[in-house]
Amino acid sequence: MSTPSEPQEHGTDPGLDAIMSERRRLIGMAYRLLGSLADAEDVVQETYARWYAMSPERQEAVRTPAAWLTTVAGRICLDLLGSARARRERYVGEWIPEPLPGGPEWISGWSGGGTAADPADRVTLDESISMAFLVVLESMTPAERVALVLHDVFRYSFAEVAEIVGRSPAACRQLASSARRRIRDSRGPLTAPARQADLVRDFKQAWQAKDLNALIGLLDPQAVATSDGGGLATASPHPVQGAEQIARFFVDLSARAERESGLTLAVRTVNGQPGLVAHQDGTTVAVLAFEIAGDRIRRIWGVRNPEKLRHWPAD
Question: Has the keyword Lyase been applied to this entry (predicted)?
Answer without folding.
Answer: no
